Amino acid sequence: MLENYLADIKASLTTSSIVTDIEIFDEFITSVSGYLECKLLMIDNSVLYISEYFTISGDAINRDKYSYHHQKNSVLLTRWDNAPHHRELSNFPHHVHKKNDVFGSKEMLIEDVLKELEKMMT
């Protein structure tokens, strides 16, 4: 199950029309957890750093920690994550950093992030 989840993530990355290159820094799968850390070069020469740690519980995959950090020329554009701070925001712990501010966000999947970025780039 976790192997399929990781394969689905990688398929989303490789088939995206806005991703030009993928560099995988780290990945692993055990019987109960998995991790992926990578860097994507985008069509506008921006970079998306992905970090996702996931576990299995029964028939469900839990995304315990995720961060999708989008930047250009070393400047943060957007970062979606679920770090357990910003308790004051709606949908805690899910939130988004945009330039110098933080907002509540829905839980994001890599497919959601790629769709958002595609809207901005095309």
CATH fold-level name of the domain at 2-75 and 106-116: Nuclear Transport Factor 2, Chain: A
Distance between the termini: 34 Å
CATH class membership of the domain at 2-75 and 106-116: Alpha Beta
DSSP strand content? over 45%
Overall CATH architecture of the domain at 2-75 and 106-116:
Roll
Structure commentary:
With 122 residues, the protein is an alpha+beta fold. The protein has a domain at 2-75 and 106-116: Nuclear Transport Factor 2, Chain: A (Roll), CATH 3.10.450.630. The protein contains two helices and seven strands. The protein has helices at residues 2-15, 110-121; strands at residues 19-29, 33-42, 47-57, 60-72, 75-81, 95-98, 101-104. The protein has a seven-stranded antiparallel sheet, with helices on one face. It is globular, with a radius of gyration of 14 Å. The mean pLDDT is 93.
Name a few traits of the molecule.
alpha+beta, 21% helix, Nuclear Transport Factor 2, Chain: A, 49% strand, 122 residues, single chain, seven-stranded antiparallel beta sheet
